[in-house]
Amino acid sequence: MQSLPELQCAFAAALIVGDEQPLPDCIVGASAMHAAAAIAVYRNNVFSNYRKALREDYAAVLGLVGEGFFHAACDAYIRLHPSPSGDLNDFGSAFATFLESWPPAAQLAYLPDVARLEWAMHLASNAADSSALNLASLAQLAPECVPQLRFDLHPSAQLIRSPYPVASIWRVSKQSADADERVDLDAGEDCLLVIRREGSVAIEPLAPGEWAALHALWQGCDLEEAHNRAVAADCAFDLGPCLQRHVLAQTIVSFHLPERAP
């Protein structure tokens, strides 16, 4: 008699991987249907739901590669990354990484970054909201504290950097089939802020220095480190206007000082 964990593993292997060898005799289908046949019906429903979730999150990828390619990618992803959660909103989190190592996508080097952009848009759409930064509290800080400040970005903010013009690729993928716009893959890198503004997700291009500063803050770095990274990316970077812009736009929504050891 198999233990419950062994039974669950056998069922998962039969359902996702299609390995029916360890299928226990205690699993039977409705109306005495053979267990393998019953699980095949269930598998079709499960895979259909997973594919639907991926189609909703990665419409641009679908538009770029077509139904057959996308369908095959979905099924391979489902088998390699079965969902650990009952929430399908989380299911596509590893799809971009999967595409990087999936052999059929090897000739489409830009595709994983397009998927990263789409996942960033998905996260931005579903993120919590936040109030604006408290400027009065910020003004009360002593000047010597400023370099150690940590600024927090809006919960919906995501930062994407790609050697390919992924924003243009994403835009073209949404056009009708008879549109003739083409994207030059050698047009240069994209430094992008993906964020929800007034209820809609926006894709905003950034200069390299500005992107480096925001990315450092996004990672939890203090203001001094963010400035250093930005200047390394662009020696002409000016921190003041960058902060002012993103505070007013509510990209930056709060701040804190690191806890000091006693």
Account of the protein in words:
The chain is mostly helical and 262 residues long. The chain has two domains: 1-108, no CATH class; 120-262, no CATH class. It is 48% helix and 11% strand. The protein has helices at 4-17, 35-57, 59-65, 67-80, 95-101, 111-126, 135-139, 166-173, 208-218, 223-233, 239-248, and strands at 150-153, 158-162, 190-197, 200-205, 252-256. A three-stranded antiparallel β-sheet has the order 2-3-4, sandwiched between helices. The protein has a two-stranded antiparallel ribbon with strand order 1-5. It is globular. The model has no long low-confidence stretch (mean pLDDT 89).
Topology:
Elements (H helix, E strand, L loop, with lengths): L3 H14 L17 H23 L1 H7 L1 H14 L14 H7 L9 H16 L8 H5 L10 E4 L4 E5 L3 H8 L16 E8 L2 E6 L2 H11 L4 H11 L5 H10 L3 E5 L6
Antiparallel strand pairs: 1-5, 2-3, 3-4
Helix pairs in contact: 2-4, 3-4, 3-8, 5-6, 6-8, 9-10
Number of domains: 2
Strand order of the largest sheet: 2-3-4
Helix amount, in percent? 40-55%
Largest sheet: 3 strands, antiparallel
Radius of gyration computed on alpha carbons: 24 Å
Structural category is mainly alpha
Beta-strand percentage range: 5-15%
Q: Report mean pLDDT, rounded to a whole number.
A: 89
Globular, elongated, flat, extended or rod-shaped: what is the shape?
globular
Q: Helix count, per DSSP?
A: 11
Number of strands: 5
Low-confidence stretches: none
| Topology pattern, helix = H, strand = E | HHHHHHHEEHEEHHHE
Subunit organisation of the chains:
single chain
- Distance, first to last CA: 58 Å
